Amino acid sequence: MNTIWLFEDVNLFGLLCPHKFKAYKNSHQFDAYKKSDYIYFEEDAANKVYLIEKGKVKIGYYNEDGVEVIKAILRKGELFGEKAILGDSRRDEFAQSIDNNTSICPVGVQTLHELMRDNQTFSFKIYKFIGLKFKKLERRLQLLLFKDAKTRLKEFIDELCVDYGYNCVKTGDHIIKHPYTQKDIASLIGISRPTLNTLLNDLKENKIIDFNRSEIRILKKSA
């Protein structure tokens, strides 16, 4: 299973967290957050990147009408705030914990640049991750701007299948075991939760999918 968010199936927390490196171990710390706590706000100084040890984090911004737009929902092992590596001095998004027990490892940009300078392979992987992440975000924004709600949901399910899916040998169905709540999915594709429920039930009635809280099953088409 391959995922664009975790390059080459690598847990970025395990790769980057300073406790893995002797020179930085003594100054390493974790920050704890409860649900709805902000890790940073728009316009905050961008001098760190962040790794998720556990919990979930929402990345988003507010549009001109003050409406919240969700860019991503990240989980254990993932990196955010990475634009600071490229030289951004201010945040253009917010990061907010959406779990009651979120643990974050902050890494100073200078520390990360030192690690990248000392290890060319490590540096290549970081830039590869950033490039792939931007491509995925661009695709999601295109969905929000140019596709209707039903198409956005179907394409998002296809994306989940790539990231979290596997084939059921017995039935031939594609089974997707994913970490998102229905509220998460609705936020990510820009629709209300009632609209999402209606669309999911419509797909279920038409025998395209079946689903429960943690699993979506794309049903094998009859010959």
From TrEMBL:
Tell me where in this chain the Cyclic nucleotide-binding domain is found. 12-91
Q: Which InterPro entries match?
A: cNMP-bd_dom (IPR000595), cNMP-bd_dom_sf (IPR018490), Env_Response_Regulators (IPR050397), HTH_CRP (IPR012318), RmlC-like_jellyroll (IPR014710), WH_DNA-bd_sf (IPR036390)
- Which Gene3D superfamilies does its entry note? Jelly Rolls
CDD domains tied to this protein: CAP_ED (cd00038)
Task: Give TM regions.
Answer: none
Q: Does the keyword Transcription regulation apply?
A: yes
The record's GO CC annotations read: cytosol
Q: Which UniProt keywords apply?
A: DNA-binding, Transcription, Transcription regulation
Query: What molecular function terms (GO) are annotated for this protein?
Result: DNA binding; DNA-binding transcription factor activity
Database matches in Pfam families:
cNMP_binding (PF00027), HTH_Crp_2 (PF13545)
**SMART domains per the record?**
cNMP (SM00100), HTH_CRP (SM00419)
Q: Does the keyword Transcription apply?
A: yes
Q: Which residues form the HTH crp-type domain?
A: 147-222
Which PANTHER family did the record assign?
A: CRP FAMILY TRANSCRIPTIONAL REGULATORY PROTEIN, HTH-TYPE TRANSCRIPTIONAL REGULATOR ARCR
Q: What is this protein called?
A: CRP-like cAMP-binding protein
